[in-house]
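Hi L., both proteins are below.
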Amino acid sequence: MTISLKEHDSTPVLRHAEAARYLGVSPDQLRLSRHTGELFKGVSTPAYLKVGHAVRYRKSTLDTWLAALPEFKSTAEYQSMK
């Protein structure tokens, strides 16, 4: 279930488990990334919101975060970037 923090804000806000599913990671991995600062080795965690004790992720923030990740056409290309 998505919620909106403001009635006039059309950006969906995802709960923790929904955001993990959207990113294709486990909820535990996403939770841990908030403490370590990295979702994967060398990849920073996406920004999140705190609403009281609850953690929420704006879908637009996740989309921007995903779009900023480098894309590769081959493993060789990836290896050359290391």
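That was the first. Here is the second:
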Amino acid sequence: MDWYQSILLAIIQGLTEFLPISSSAHLIIPMYLTNWVDQGLAFDTCVHLGSLFAVIWYFRKDILRMIQAVWHHLAFARPSDDSHFAFSLLIASLPIIPVGYFLKDTVETDLRSGMVIAIATIGFGLLLWWADRTHRERKPDHALGWGSAFFIGCMQCLALIPGASRSGVTMTAALMAGHSRQAASRISFLLSIPAILGASSLKLIDITRSPEVVDWLALITGTLVAAISAYLCIHFFLKWINRIGFMPFVIYRLLLGMVLIVWLWPAS
């Protein structure tokens, strides 16, 4: 890839991984607008790892505090809000493991089409609108019950549908479970850590079996740019989301989905 191609795709990945607007939808647009070839499995994996580094670094204090709390809970029988929150995140991370494993081939073949992405972009955007409009804040920001965690984890499985947006689906579920906008976003971002780590691990296994030639400069550039753009995205999103709400993202998803449908209709 040319340097500007790797930078643009890394920026898109870093931003859309955490915004509720679907990274799948945005990564196909440059391919339709240009003559670029597919970025390849190695690059795709590296930009996801860049996003992973960003979210871990942003929440490093929270993560360390939860690790310490879990240790005190297990070793000294001293439970705390942080240890309970950590166990709840673990519960929320479990459902997608078997579902993703068994549906991986189906998702990558039968569902990976532009029209599916367009319809999912609209459909899950409307679901986010409904959840944001009807949600009632019933829980403190750091409270995540095990039942709510399991519900959010089951909803996260829907993010396997290209165009659904993992961030969008988990934020929608957390709103439905009674969390504030900022708390729902925080839960979604923390849940991305095991999700991205698991998906990247599977891709790394695929890379070892692939004859793909590695462009190390493009990989390093993509990883760094994705990490920076993802970090900035998380920072400003959490800063502004309670003030602006999810409606701007819903409108954007509806417009994007309709544009994709019009664009792809002659080819379908």
